[in-house]
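Contributing new records

If you add data, match the layout below exactly. Sequence lines come first and carry their own label; structure lines follow with theirs. Keep one chain per record. Anything else will be rejected by the validation script.
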Amino acid sequence: MPALQSNLLARCPVMIFATATLAERYRAPFPACLHRAPMLLPTRGNVLRSQLEQWFEEIDVKVEVVAEFEDGALLNTFGQQGLGLFPAPAFQPGDITGRLDVEMLGRVGKVYEHYYAITHRRKLQHPAVQAVLQTAAPDVADTTEP
């Protein structure tokens, strides 16, 4: 029996954001407005990148990848500077728009960032760990689409 286990804590929707200048140019209709738009993306091999590429293909949109990032915070910083549209996980758009002074263009359908807690089986006895896992479970079960 493995000593470690993975526990899904949260599933966070992914949205596309842009500076006011880029948002004005690429605002509506979403997601067709993304066709040929300058896009900042995670590097290839990243799970989020794979999900985004699959979604772009499903909606028949081809974006212009202007930069790739290993670090999400760096991707957000370049997006905040107006170098391209960028995806970011956010439970609410205000989580990103307020902090980075950008606008949300739309929500990426069926694409989520997942957050896990990796725990040792023996540590699950700790009340704090149990409380976190019990609190997370109901939110994760929600599979409704926007």
